[in-house]
Amino acid sequence: MAELAKEPLIVVGARSSAFRGTWRELRAILRQREMLGMLIRRDLKARYKDSALGFVWTLVRPLTQLLIYYFVMGTILGSARSIDNFAIYVFTGLTAYTLFSEVVAGATGSIVGNSGLIKKVYVPREVFPLASIGAALVNFLIQFTILIAATVTLRAFPWHEGLIFLVPSLLVILVYSAAIGLVLAALNVYLRDVQFIIDVGLMVLLWASPIVYSYSMVLQRLKVDWLLAVYTNNPLTLSILGLQRAIWAHGAATEPAWPAEHLVRLCIALLVGTVLLIAAQRVFSRLQGNFAQAL
């Protein structure tokens, strides 16, 4: 009791400056890094519990989507004739989109899904959305390994200058998905419709991203300047195009179109996303005070 009396009283959701409050929460999360690792392992084991194939199921959905898109969009509608290595192109976009969607969807339901633990013991609430991000990254690494193996098999290994876009594109996806996931995780506690709204939003983003069609087609058909600017500067679009630029190999005769100053746009998006992530953490911190009562 004497040692407990020496512990400082920390008011959950107390007002503080953005950087000071974020730094305080980050230190608290680092002190709980063992629990964070345990939650990531638990999420992965629970997802494939009693499954004979285990992590193989991570590839079933994207590979099924790949086969459907390749047959419908590539063969029947003829997209494969205008895009070299169409299977690699589509799977690269699906891999990026799957990472984004798994982080957002997993983080959104993370607080409600761990309500029993949250009501019994206090830990930094951010560890639950972060555990969803860790689990999504493990699945991404599996899919990315398969993607690289496919490029080797098809003799289209991405050894070119476009690899410079790989890291910024992944960072943009992680920063924005984490920011969105933190805010939605907090809102989902008080408004359970959020998890259903996000399913619709992610479906719209799937078709609003250059995954099964090329950016060149967008330039040809989208003639309204401000709509084209919104589409191009969408962080998910920039990231998917960046990963395609890094991984997808194409013939010299079919040089694709890319956004002007693509790397600069990615860096600006990353900077803006970092600011939004700090703001999202502060919103999460202000809303977490009544999590236990609302759950």
What labels would you give this structure?
single chain; 295 residues; mainly alpha; 16 helices
Question: Can you offer a commentary on this structure?
Answer:
This protein has helices spanning 2-6, 18-31, 33-47, 57-76, 79-82, 86-108, 110-113, 115-118, 127-153, 166-190, 194-207, 215-221, 225-233, 235-247, 262-287, 291-294. The protein is an all-alpha fold and 295 residues long. It has one domain. Helix 2 (18-31) packs across helix 15 and helix 6 (86-108) packs parallel to helix 10 (166-190). It is globular. The mean pLDDT is 84.
Oligomer classification: single chain
What composes the largest sheet? none
Morphology = globular
Work out the helicity level: over 70%
Number of helices: 16
The beta-strand count equals 0
| Global mean pLDDT | 84
End-to-end Cα distance: 30 Å
Percentage of residues in strands: under 5%
Question: Which residues form runs of ≥5 with pLDDT under 50?
Answer: none
**Class per helix and strand makeup:** mainly alpha
Total count of domains = 1
Secondary-structure element string: HHHHHHHHHHHHHHHH
Mind telling me the C-alpha Rg? 21 Å
How would you concisely characterize the structure shown here?
This protein is mostly helical and 295 residues long. It contains 16 helices and no strands.
Secondary structure blueprint with pairings:
Elements lengths: L1 H5 L11 H14 L1 H15 L9 H20 L2 H4 L3 H23 L1 H4 L1 H4 L8 H27 L12 H25 L3 H14 L7 H7 L3 H9 L1 H13 L14 H26 L3 H4 L1
Helix pairs in contact: 2-15, 3-9, 4-6, 6-9, 6-10, 6-11, 6-14, 10-14, 10-15, 14-15
